[in-house]
Amino acid sequence: MQRSLEDLISTRRVIVTVGCGGVGKTTVAAAVALAAARKGRRVLCLTIDPAKRLATSLGLKEMRAEAQTVPPELWGQPESTGGALTAMMLDVRGTFDELVTRHASSPEVRDRILSNRIYREVAGNLAGTPEYMAMEKLHAVRDDPRYDLIVLDTPPTSNALDFLDAPDKMIDAMDSPAVKAFVTAFQRGGSLSLSFLSRAMAKVLQGLSTFTGGGFLEQIAEFLSDLQGLFGGFRERASKVRESLAARDVAFVLVTSTDPMAVGEAMFFAERLQQNGMVAEAVVMNRVRSLPEQAPPSADRLAGILGEAGVEPAQELGNAFSKSWRDAQVWARRDAQEVARVARDFAAVPRHVVVPALDEDVYDIAALTHVAACLV
Amino acid sequence: MASDLLNRRFLAVIGKGGTGKTTVSASLALLAASRGKRVLVAMSQARERMSAMLETSFIGSEVSTILPNIDAVNLDPDACLEEYGMMVLKVRALYKAVMDNRLVKGFLRAVPGMDAWAMLGKTLYHVKETDSAGRPRYDLVILDAPATGHGLQMLRVPKVITEVAPPGLLRREADDGLRILRDPALSGMVVVTLAEEMPTAETEELYPQLTRDLGLPIGRLVINQVLPPVFGAKTDNALRAAAVLGRASALEAVAQVGAARARREALQRTMIERLAKLPGQKVILPSLAVDRLRRAEIEALAKGLGAL
């Protein structure tokens, strides 16, 4: 078992970080990108809705949907290795608009979709869209000759499965025979075309209309019908991206904290990857707390030393230092248990990296550099 | 204490992933049940975790009683759509004709936001549900909402429907849902966060979205997993003491650990001060020194919630 991501960072074309919310996935993605840039690779770091502090830590005012170059002096480029670091945020809404513009069958259809109220409400929020758009963006940059490595931070999902399933779910829902049948049941621009339908179906639709209110089904059907024209292309590309994710030059990196729940999610995701013909190449345990094995210091002894040096209130501070140590010991033992469990349960994953907990949250370049150093 | 919160009929627990929404939902349920309220907990999790925390039987997509006074359900979009359709359309024949139709199901699944609305709609239906004597079936319904983005999306759906849908049953249902959600006597958002930089920033962004954009009342801000202070406000003294202790090589690690703790407590204080500026009542819950949360810990947290 390897203890570093060095070979992945040096050789792969795409690295995808996955894990559940709150484990520091985005930080690890940024650190991977930084480490690769320092090794002389030209890296694109693609993140979704990152915390503002992360942008700041990369020397950017804010994360934007356009590619932004991270100033080399910030990530400490060792003399002219040729590395470069570019950051880009996934703009779900913008990517969707772009797709509509590019694939609509005519300018009228394009305008109709873009100005549709339902579209405007849901384009950025529709379940599955962030995941789908991440796939789209990855597809768009996968062969971009300006980059050697693309680091993709997957959207924050309550469960990591969404990333693989959501795009298909979204497309299946929109492009299903059911929707096709409905769309043909409504004539463009208008009302229910009863002549098309069996009486039973007409009755069903009338029943449904009592629920939705007059005209609404027609509106939705029209919207879906316009969108459908786009989905042929979507489906094809989604399956291409999916296939390309199974390629040898793509590495999935599982990120987890020492929270047993997060570890469980990572396990679950490793299994799902395997079912999809993809491989988890590494597991990163983030924010692991550790402590040298030594007896807790006696509070009185500490207080004595502090009292002699004139630091007051000596006894109170002595107690506090002693208590801090004992707490830290509990956390360190707990984390060691989880690390051992991960070593056991993820034995099939060839690389295990432990990133020690830092004193504070990671949101400056120094801390990010520190995390990067742990990865290689 | 906490009765202003527990006397409401609907609470939505929302926050960033990893902040402890499920823990807080479970604690609220135990607290309300201990005060004799009949509670329903509704959640939407791919892998249901609350039963492990409360040491009960598995929580499935059908409402079941897991503890005295506590029912629970794990909302499944498809099951919700069917059930909700049944609740709303009432007349079984009509329901059968509409919902049993494969094409209708397929179509409804494709309607943007329908999944989220079916889940929220079903949950709100239980708020309004009455028994044969006309009394509410539940005194309190708790929604363990999906993480921030998806949770917000779910709470936004009724507003979107009232803006987009023509007058009709769907619109009336959404209007009625909004009426419940926006009434501070009936509903409250329970926002869960940590006293750390990123969750705090996300909470500051979430607040105006809940209140200004959606008009939803805040019930509580729960600041979860707060480390009990050992240094308190004496950060400077602590750091001076660490410098002194660090001179002895045997105590170097001790000095470092103490200094880190003092800095973390200082950061925590700063975050709590920032969070205190947000409107509404706050509750601080301590971080618990255990491997896995079990019933005993949830009960302890429930007490904490009740006392404040």
Describe what you observe in this structure:
- The complex is a heterodimer of chains A (376) and B (308).
- By secondary structure, chain A is α/β, with parallel strands linked by helices.
- Chain A contains 15 helices and eight strands.
- Chain A has an eight-stranded mixed sheet, sandwiched between helices.
- In chain A, strand 6 (250-256), helix 12 and strand 7 (280-288) form a beta-alpha-beta unit.
- The longest helix of chain A is centred in the C-terminal third of the chain and has 32 residues, at 314-345.
- Chain B is an alpha/beta fold and 308 residues long.
- Chain B has a single domain, classed as Rossmann fold.
- Chain B has 13 helices and eight strands.
- Chain B has helices spanning 3-6, 21-34, 50-54, 77-89, 92-99, 102-110, 114-128, 148-164, 169-182, 197-213, 235-245, 252-276, 295-307; strands at residues 10-15, 39-43, 64-67, 70-74, 140-144, 187-194, 218-226, 282-286.
- Chain B has an eight-stranded mixed sheet, sandwiched between helices.
- In chain B, a hairpin with a 2-residue loop joins strand 3 and strand 4.
- Chain B is elongated.
- The model of chain B has no long low-confidence stretch (mean pLDDT 89).
List keywords for this structure.
heterodimer; A: 376 residues; alpha/beta; 15 helices; B: 308 residues; Rossmann fold; eight-stranded mixed sheet; 13 helices; 8 strands; 54% helix; 15% strand
